[in-house]
Write a structure and sequence with these properties.
The chain is an alpha+beta fold. It has 2 domains: about 110 residues; about 240 residues, PPM-type phosphatase domain (Phosphatase 2c, domain 1), CATH 3.60.40. The protein is built from 11 helices and 11 strands. The strands form 2 sheets. Strands 1-2-11-10-7-8 form a 6-stranded antiparallel beta sheet. Strands 3-4-5-6-9 form a 5-stranded antiparallel beta sheet, with helices on one face. The longest helix has about 45 residues. It is elongated, with a radius of gyration of 28 Å. The two termini are about 45 Å apart.
Protein backbone atom coordinates (compact mmCIF):
# COMPACT_ATOMS: atom_id res chain seq x y z
CA UNK A 1 0.00 0.00 0.00
CA UNK A 2 2.83 2.40 0.86
CA UNK A 3 4.65 1.64 -2.37
CA UNK A 4 1.48 2.23 -4.41
CA UNK A 5 0.74 5.56 -2.67
CA UNK A 6 4.24 6.71 -3.50
CA UNK A 7 3.84 5.62 -7.12
CA UNK A 8 0.70 7.74 -7.42
CA UNK A 9 2.90 10.83 -7.26
CA UNK A 10 4.78 9.86 -10.43
CA UNK A 11 2.51 11.83 -12.85
CA UNK A 12 2.88 14.98 -10.71
CA UNK A 13 6.63 14.40 -10.63
CA UNK A 14 6.71 14.16 -14.42
CA UNK A 15 4.91 17.51 -14.71
CA UNK A 16 7.28 19.12 -12.18
CA UNK A 17 10.28 17.75 -14.06
CA UNK A 18 8.91 19.19 -17.31
CA UNK A 19 8.58 22.63 -15.68
CA UNK A 20 12.17 22.54 -14.44
CA UNK A 21 13.45 21.31 -17.80
CA UNK A 22 11.59 24.08 -19.63
CA UNK A 23 12.88 26.81 -17.34
CA UNK A 24 16.55 25.79 -17.48
CA UNK A 25 16.74 25.15 -21.23
CA UNK A 26 16.72 27.61 -24.17
CA UNK A 27 13.39 28.76 -25.59
CA UNK A 28 13.96 26.63 -28.69
CA UNK A 29 13.83 23.48 -26.52
CA UNK A 30 10.28 22.42 -25.63
CA UNK A 31 9.23 20.27 -22.70
CA UNK A 32 5.92 19.32 -24.36
CA UNK A 33 6.89 15.66 -25.00
CA UNK A 34 7.74 15.22 -21.31
CA UNK A 35 4.47 16.81 -20.19
CA UNK A 36 2.57 14.44 -22.51
CA UNK A 37 4.05 11.49 -20.59
CA UNK A 38 2.19 12.53 -17.41
CA UNK A 39 -1.33 11.35 -18.43
CA UNK A 40 0.12 8.08 -19.76
CA UNK A 41 1.97 7.55 -16.47
CA UNK A 42 -1.31 8.19 -14.64
CA UNK A 43 -3.20 5.46 -16.54
CA UNK A 44 -2.18 2.47 -14.36
CA UNK A 45 -1.71 4.45 -11.14
CA UNK A 46 -4.67 6.79 -10.68
CA UNK A 47 -8.46 6.67 -10.84
CA UNK A 48 -10.38 7.85 -13.88
CA UNK A 49 -10.90 11.23 -12.23
CA UNK A 50 -7.20 11.45 -11.39
CA UNK A 51 -6.23 10.77 -15.01
CA UNK A 52 -8.53 13.51 -16.31
CA UNK A 53 -7.23 15.97 -13.71
CA UNK A 54 -3.66 15.04 -14.67
CA UNK A 55 -4.49 15.71 -18.31
CA UNK A 56 -6.05 19.11 -17.52
CA UNK A 57 -3.10 20.02 -15.29
CA UNK A 58 -0.69 19.06 -18.06
CA UNK A 59 -2.55 21.28 -20.54
CA UNK A 60 -2.59 24.21 -18.09
CA UNK A 61 1.12 23.88 -17.30
CA UNK A 62 2.01 23.59 -20.99
CA UNK A 63 -0.06 26.70 -21.84
CA UNK A 64 1.64 28.72 -19.09
CA UNK A 65 5.13 27.64 -20.13
CA UNK A 66 4.38 28.35 -23.80
CA UNK A 67 3.16 31.85 -22.95
CA UNK A 68 6.25 32.51 -20.83
CA UNK A 69 8.42 31.43 -23.76
CA UNK A 70 6.27 33.37 -26.23
CA UNK A 71 5.66 30.21 -28.28
CA UNK A 72 1.93 29.71 -27.77
CA UNK A 73 0.93 29.61 -31.40
CA UNK A 74 -0.70 27.04 -33.67
CA UNK A 75 2.52 25.19 -34.42
CA UNK A 76 3.88 24.86 -30.87
CA UNK A 77 0.87 25.73 -28.75
CA UNK A 78 -2.56 24.67 -29.94
CA UNK A 79 -1.21 21.58 -31.71
CA UNK A 80 0.41 20.39 -28.46
CA UNK A 81 -2.80 21.11 -26.56
CA UNK A 82 -4.77 18.94 -28.98
CA UNK A 83 -2.12 16.25 -28.63
CA UNK A 84 -2.49 16.40 -24.84
CA UNK A 85 -6.25 15.91 -25.23
CA UNK A 86 -5.64 12.86 -27.40
CA UNK A 87 -3.02 11.47 -24.98
CA UNK A 88 -5.40 11.94 -22.03
CA UNK A 89 -8.16 10.07 -23.89
CA UNK A 90 -5.67 7.32 -24.67
CA UNK A 91 -4.74 7.14 -20.96
CA UNK A 92 -8.42 6.80 -20.06
CA UNK A 93 -8.74 3.92 -22.54
CA UNK A 94 -5.64 2.23 -21.13
CA UNK A 95 -6.95 2.64 -17.59
CA UNK A 96 -10.32 1.10 -18.44
CA UNK A 97 -8.60 -1.81 -20.21
CA UNK A 98 -6.34 -2.45 -17.21
CA UNK A 99 -9.33 -2.18 -14.85
CA UNK A 100 -11.32 -4.74 -16.86
CA UNK A 101 -8.39 -7.15 -16.90
CA UNK A 102 -7.88 -6.69 -13.16
CA UNK A 103 -11.57 -7.36 -12.60
CA UNK A 104 -11.38 -10.60 -14.57
CA UNK A 105 -8.33 -11.66 -12.56
CA UNK A 106 -10.07 -10.87 -9.26
CA UNK A 107 -13.10 -12.89 -10.30
CA UNK A 108 -10.89 -15.80 -11.36
CA UNK A 109 -9.06 -15.66 -8.03
CA UNK A 110 -12.37 -15.69 -6.15
CA UNK A 111 -13.56 -18.70 -8.13
CA UNK A 112 -10.23 -20.41 -7.52
CA UNK A 113 -10.46 -19.67 -3.79
CA UNK A 114 -14.00 -21.11 -3.62
CA UNK A 115 -12.93 -24.21 -5.54
CA UNK A 116 -9.84 -24.54 -3.34
CA UNK A 117 -12.01 -24.40 -0.22
CA UNK A 118 -14.30 -27.10 -1.62
CA UNK A 119 -11.36 -29.36 -2.47
CA UNK A 120 -9.42 -28.57 0.69
CA UNK A 121 -11.76 -28.33 3.70
CA UNK A 122 -10.40 -26.80 6.90
CA UNK A 123 -9.39 -29.35 9.55
CA UNK A 124 -11.03 -29.37 13.02
CA UNK A 125 -9.70 -26.80 15.48
CA UNK A 126 -9.16 -29.42 18.15
CA UNK A 127 -8.76 -33.18 18.45
CA UNK A 128 -8.41 -34.07 22.11
CA UNK A 129 -5.35 -32.25 23.46
CA UNK A 130 -4.16 -31.37 19.96
CA UNK A 131 -5.00 -27.80 18.89
CA UNK A 132 -4.97 -27.29 15.11
CA UNK A 133 -4.85 -24.30 12.77
CA UNK A 134 -4.50 -24.23 8.98
CA UNK A 135 -4.03 -21.55 6.35
CA UNK A 136 -3.87 -21.51 2.56
CA UNK A 137 -2.29 -18.49 0.83
CA UNK A 138 -2.57 -18.48 -2.98
CA UNK A 139 0.09 -16.84 -5.12
CA UNK A 140 -1.22 -13.41 -6.09
CA UNK A 141 0.12 -13.62 -9.63
CA UNK A 142 -1.81 -16.83 -10.37
CA UNK A 143 -5.50 -17.26 -11.11
CA UNK A 144 -5.20 -21.04 -11.10
CA UNK A 145 -5.91 -23.50 -8.33
CA UNK A 146 -2.68 -24.76 -6.84
CA UNK A 147 -1.70 -28.22 -5.72
CA UNK A 148 -0.79 -27.55 -2.08
CA UNK A 149 -2.78 -29.59 0.43
CA UNK A 150 -3.17 -30.53 4.06
CA UNK A 151 -5.42 -32.95 5.92
CA UNK A 152 -5.72 -33.98 9.58
CA UNK A 153 -7.63 -37.10 10.56
CA UNK A 154 -8.39 -38.88 13.81
CA UNK A 155 -7.86 -42.63 13.32
CA UNK A 156 -7.81 -45.79 15.47
CA UNK A 157 -4.01 -45.47 15.42
CA UNK A 158 -3.83 -41.87 16.55
CA UNK A 159 -4.08 -38.53 14.78
CA UNK A 160 -2.54 -38.63 11.33
CA UNK A 161 -1.51 -35.68 9.17
CA UNK A 162 -0.62 -35.23 5.52
CA UNK A 163 0.87 -32.03 4.09
CA UNK A 164 1.74 -32.16 0.40
CA UNK A 165 2.48 -30.25 -2.76
CA UNK A 166 1.39 -31.62 -6.11
CA UNK A 167 3.45 -30.79 -9.18
CA UNK A 168 1.76 -28.24 -11.43
CA UNK A 169 -1.40 -26.13 -11.27
CA UNK A 170 -4.88 -26.11 -12.68
CA UNK A 171 -7.25 -29.03 -13.17
CA UNK A 172 -4.45 -31.59 -13.38
CA UNK A 173 -3.21 -30.58 -9.95
CA UNK A 174 -6.78 -30.59 -8.59
CA UNK A 175 -7.25 -34.17 -9.79
CA UNK A 176 -4.03 -35.22 -8.07
CA UNK A 177 -5.01 -33.38 -4.87
CA UNK A 178 -8.37 -35.15 -4.82
CA UNK A 179 -6.64 -38.50 -5.33
CA UNK A 180 -4.16 -37.68 -2.55
CA UNK A 181 -6.88 -36.64 -0.10
CA UNK A 182 -9.12 -39.59 -0.91
CA UNK A 183 -6.30 -42.11 -0.69
CA UNK A 184 -5.05 -40.64 2.57
CA UNK A 185 -8.48 -40.56 4.22
CA UNK A 186 -9.12 -44.17 3.28
CA UNK A 187 -5.64 -45.48 4.15
CA UNK A 188 -5.35 -43.48 7.37
CA UNK A 189 -8.20 -45.47 8.92
CA UNK A 190 -7.01 -48.82 7.54
CA UNK A 191 -3.21 -48.86 7.61
CA UNK A 192 -1.72 -50.11 10.86
CA UNK A 193 1.53 -48.16 10.37
CA UNK A 194 2.93 -45.26 8.38
CA UNK A 195 4.81 -47.49 5.93
CA UNK A 196 1.57 -49.11 4.84
CA UNK A 197 -0.18 -45.74 4.66
CA UNK A 198 2.50 -44.25 2.42
CA UNK A 199 2.46 -47.30 0.15
CA UNK A 200 -1.29 -46.88 -0.31
CA UNK A 201 -0.80 -43.19 -1.16
CA UNK A 202 1.91 -43.95 -3.67
CA UNK A 203 -0.04 -46.72 -5.37
CA UNK A 204 -3.08 -44.45 -5.74
CA UNK A 205 -0.98 -41.68 -7.30
CA UNK A 206 0.80 -44.08 -9.65
CA UNK A 207 -2.56 -45.44 -10.81
CA UNK A 208 -3.81 -41.90 -11.40
CA UNK A 209 -0.63 -41.02 -13.32
CA UNK A 210 -1.08 -44.12 -15.48
CA UNK A 211 -4.64 -43.12 -16.33
CA UNK A 212 -3.55 -39.62 -17.33
CA UNK A 213 -0.51 -40.86 -19.24
CA UNK A 214 2.11 -38.71 -20.97
CA UNK A 215 4.30 -36.46 -18.85
CA UNK A 216 2.09 -36.92 -15.79
CA UNK A 217 2.87 -40.63 -15.77
CA UNK A 218 6.60 -39.94 -15.48
CA UNK A 219 6.72 -36.61 -13.63
CA UNK A 220 3.34 -36.27 -11.90
CA UNK A 221 4.60 -36.40 -8.34
CA UNK A 222 3.70 -35.08 -4.89
CA UNK A 223 6.08 -33.99 -2.17
CA UNK A 224 4.63 -35.25 1.06
CA UNK A 225 5.04 -35.05 4.81
CA UNK A 226 3.08 -37.80 6.55
CA UNK A 227 2.95 -37.62 10.34
CA UNK A 228 1.36 -39.71 13.07
CA UNK A 229 0.97 -38.61 16.66
CA UNK A 230 1.15 -41.17 19.47
CA UNK A 231 -2.20 -41.69 21.17
CA UNK A 232 -0.91 -39.86 24.25
CA UNK A 233 0.74 -37.18 22.01
CA UNK A 234 4.13 -37.87 23.60
CA UNK A 235 5.81 -38.36 20.21
CA UNK A 236 5.32 -37.74 16.52
CA UNK A 237 6.38 -40.19 13.82
CA UNK A 238 7.18 -38.77 10.39
CA UNK A 239 7.88 -40.00 6.88
CA UNK A 240 9.22 -37.24 4.64
CA UNK A 241 9.02 -37.72 0.88
CA UNK A 242 10.87 -34.76 -0.64
CA UNK A 243 8.97 -32.18 1.42
CA UNK A 244 10.31 -29.22 3.45
CA UNK A 245 10.96 -30.54 6.98
CA UNK A 246 8.56 -29.32 9.66
CA UNK A 247 9.59 -27.04 12.50
CA UNK A 248 9.14 -28.15 16.11
CA UNK A 249 8.52 -25.12 18.33
CA UNK A 250 9.25 -25.85 21.97
CA UNK A 251 7.29 -24.32 24.83
CA UNK A 252 10.53 -22.73 26.14
CA UNK A 253 11.05 -20.86 22.87
CA UNK A 254 13.48 -23.12 21.02
CA UNK A 255 12.92 -24.38 17.49
CA UNK A 256 14.22 -27.47 15.72
CA UNK A 257 13.92 -28.52 12.09
CA UNK A 258 12.86 -32.16 12.03
CA UNK A 259 15.13 -33.28 9.20
CA UNK A 260 14.64 -36.82 7.85
CA UNK A 261 17.32 -39.33 8.77
CA UNK A 262 17.42 -40.39 5.11
CA UNK A 263 16.44 -38.39 2.03
CA UNK A 264 13.67 -39.87 -0.10
CA UNK A 265 12.13 -38.73 -3.41
CA UNK A 266 8.57 -37.38 -3.70
CA UNK A 267 5.63 -39.73 -3.95
CA UNK A 268 4.77 -41.35 -7.27
CA UNK A 269 7.79 -40.55 -9.41
CA UNK A 270 7.05 -43.07 -12.13
CA UNK A 271 10.66 -43.67 -13.23
CA UNK A 272 11.70 -44.67 -9.69
CA UNK A 273 8.69 -46.79 -8.79
CA UNK A 274 8.22 -47.54 -5.10
CA UNK A 275 10.69 -46.17 -2.59
CA UNK A 276 11.16 -47.07 1.04
CA UNK A 277 11.62 -44.16 3.43
CA UNK A 278 12.43 -44.40 7.14
CA UNK A 279 9.98 -43.52 9.89
CA UNK A 280 11.61 -40.92 12.14
CA UNK A 281 10.31 -40.48 15.69
CA UNK A 282 10.60 -37.20 17.59
CA UNK A 283 9.49 -36.21 21.11
CA UNK A 284 6.39 -34.01 21.22
CA UNK A 285 6.15 -32.67 24.77
CA UNK A 286 3.23 -30.64 26.18
CA UNK A 287 3.28 -27.07 24.93
CA UNK A 288 5.18 -27.97 21.75
CA UNK A 289 3.90 -26.99 18.31
CA UNK A 290 4.55 -28.82 15.05
CA UNK A 291 4.67 -26.26 12.23
CA UNK A 292 4.27 -27.70 8.72
CA UNK A 293 4.34 -25.81 5.43
CA UNK A 294 4.93 -26.20 1.72
CA UNK A 295 7.79 -24.76 -0.36
CA UNK A 296 5.87 -21.53 -0.93
CA UNK A 297 7.36 -20.61 2.47
CA UNK A 298 10.84 -22.11 2.24
CA UNK A 299 11.46 -20.92 -1.33
CA UNK A 300 10.15 -17.39 -0.81
CA UNK A 301 12.96 -14.99 -1.77
CA UNK A 302 13.68 -11.35 -1.13
CA UNK A 303 14.93 -8.84 -3.72
CA UNK A 304 18.47 -10.19 -3.35
CA UNK A 305 17.41 -13.79 -3.89
CA UNK A 306 17.80 -14.87 -0.26
CA UNK A 307 15.42 -17.66 0.78
CA UNK A 308 13.16 -17.28 3.78
CA UNK A 309 14.55 -19.08 6.86
CA UNK A 310 11.61 -20.19 8.98
CA UNK A 311 13.83 -21.88 11.58
CA UNK A 312 15.54 -18.55 12.29
CA UNK A 313 12.59 -16.19 11.85
CA UNK A 314 9.74 -17.94 13.67
CA UNK A 315 11.47 -18.08 17.10
CA UNK A 316 12.22 -14.35 16.80
CA UNK A 317 8.58 -13.64 16.01
CA UNK A 318 7.41 -15.70 18.98
CA UNK A 319 9.90 -14.08 21.38
CA UNK A 320 8.70 -10.66 20.28
CA UNK A 321 5.12 -11.80 20.84
CA UNK A 322 5.90 -13.23 24.31
CA UNK A 323 7.06 -9.82 25.53
CA UNK A 324 3.41 -8.80 25.60
CA UNK A 325 2.78 -11.59 28.10
CA UNK A 326 0.48 -13.54 25.76
CA UNK A 327 1.26 -16.91 24.24
CA UNK A 328 0.49 -17.10 20.54
CA UNK A 329 -2.19 -19.58 19.53
CA UNK A 330 -1.55 -21.92 16.57
CA UNK A 331 -3.67 -19.64 14.37
CA UNK A 332 -1.69 -16.58 15.47
CA UNK A 333 1.59 -18.40 14.79
CA UNK A 334 0.48 -19.04 11.21
CA UNK A 335 -0.73 -15.47 10.74
CA UNK A 336 2.60 -14.10 12.00
CA UNK A 337 4.50 -16.42 9.68
CA UNK A 338 2.39 -15.43 6.66
CA UNK A 339 2.93 -11.73 7.35
CA UNK A 340 6.66 -12.23 7.82
CA UNK A 341 7.00 -14.15 4.55
CA UNK A 342 5.05 -11.39 2.81
CA UNK A 343 7.43 -8.78 4.21
CA UNK A 344 10.41 -10.88 3.10
CA UNK A 345 9.16 -11.08 -0.49
CA UNK A 346 8.13 -7.45 -0.70
CA UNK A 347 4.41 -8.02 -0.40
CA UNK A 348 3.60 -10.64 -3.04
CA UNK A 349 3.49 -14.42 -2.40
CA UNK A 350 5.61 -16.02 -5.13
CA UNK A 351 3.98 -19.43 -4.81
CA UNK A 352 1.04 -21.04 -3.06
CA UNK A 353 1.53 -21.64 0.66
CA UNK A 354 -0.21 -24.33 2.70
CA UNK A 355 0.48 -24.09 6.44
CA UNK A 356 -0.53 -26.26 9.36
CA UNK A 357 0.18 -25.78 13.08
CA UNK A 358 -0.53 -28.50 15.64
CA UNK A 359 0.02 -27.80 19.35
CA UNK A 360 0.11 -30.23 22.26
CA UNK A 361 -1.87 -28.63 25.09
CA UNK A 362 0.31 -27.77 28.11
CA UNK A 363 -0.24 -29.93 31.15
Amino acid sequence: MVQRSKAQWIPAGVIALAVVADLVTPTAVTSAPLIMAAPVAAAPLLTLRGIILTGLASMAVHACLARVDGTFGWHRGLANQLTLVAVTLLAVFIHRTIDRQAGRTRRALRVAAIAQGAVLPRPPERLGDLHIAARYVPAEDEAMIGGDLYVVQQTPYGTRVFVGDVRGKGLGAVNAVCVDLGAFRNAADQAENLDELVRSLEEALLREGGRRGGLEQEEGFTTGLIAEFATDLSAVRIINRGHPPPLLLEAQGGATLLEPSQEAPPLAIGALGHWSAPVDTFPFPPGATLLCYTDGVTEARDTEGVFYDAAARVPLLLRHRSRSGEEATPAQVLDMLIRDVRRHTGGRPQDDQALLALRHSPE
